[in-house]
Write a structure and sequence with these properties.
Number of strands: 14
Structural class: alpha/beta
Oligomer: single chain
Strand content: 25-35%
Order of helices and strands: HEEHEEEEHEEEEEEEE
Length: 174
């Protein structure tokens, strides 16, 4: 799994691609990862690094290999669509990765909760496309909207496609 690879101290050459069978458990959003030759702090997750990257147990950095259609799946980065797990950090990493790679951020089926504002940061000439792909992106408090632009004068182009919804129902203002 990706979690096992993050903890691993096995030695891999740069540009090696390893396909994980799941993020935390087999079948929970596995994805291909490419060792990119960069090093950093050991055992860092995509949520900790803020992008579709992780560092293994030796500090070697791995980058997410987008799907054949160019999309980045939220579950491949560790998001859990069970309607219980708060996925704020990994969902922010998912959006950031889509912006940086000019890919489509694909949510997938399930209810993905987030407890803080997800921010789309401006990148020159970058278009952000969010494919809900049948999923629900749900805020956990009234003070949190689903996605916000960063407020700069150079706003990115953002589009939302696919079936699914942003859900702010049944929230309590805290």
């Amino acid at each position: 799994t990706t979690t096992e690879l993050i903890a691993s101290t096995a030695i891999y050459a740069a540009d090696v691609v390893v396909t994980a069978v799941g993020f935390t458990t087999s079948g929970s959003g596995g994805a291909p990862w490419k060792q990119n030759g960069t090093t950093g702090i050991a055992s860092q997750t995509p949520a900790q690094l803020g992008l579709a990257l992780f560092n293994d147990g030796n500090g070697n950095q791995w980058g997410f290999v987008p799907e054949d259609d160019g999309s980045i799946l939220a579950t491949a980065l560790g998001a859990v669509g069970d309607g219980i797990t708060i996925n704020t950090a990994v969902l922010q990493a998912w959006l950031n990765a889509a912006i940086v790679s000019n890919s489509t951020a694909k949510l997938g089926s399930g209810t993905f909760l987030h407890g803080q504002l997800l921010i789309v940061v401006s990148q020159a000439n970058r278009r952000v496309r969010v494919d809900l792909a049948g999923g629900i992106l749900k805020a956990t408090a009234l003070t949190v909207s689903a996605i916000d632009l960063d407020g700069s004068t150079s706003r990115p182009s953002i589009s939302v496609i696919g079936p699914g919804r942003f859900d702010g129902s049944n929230l309590v203002n805290s």
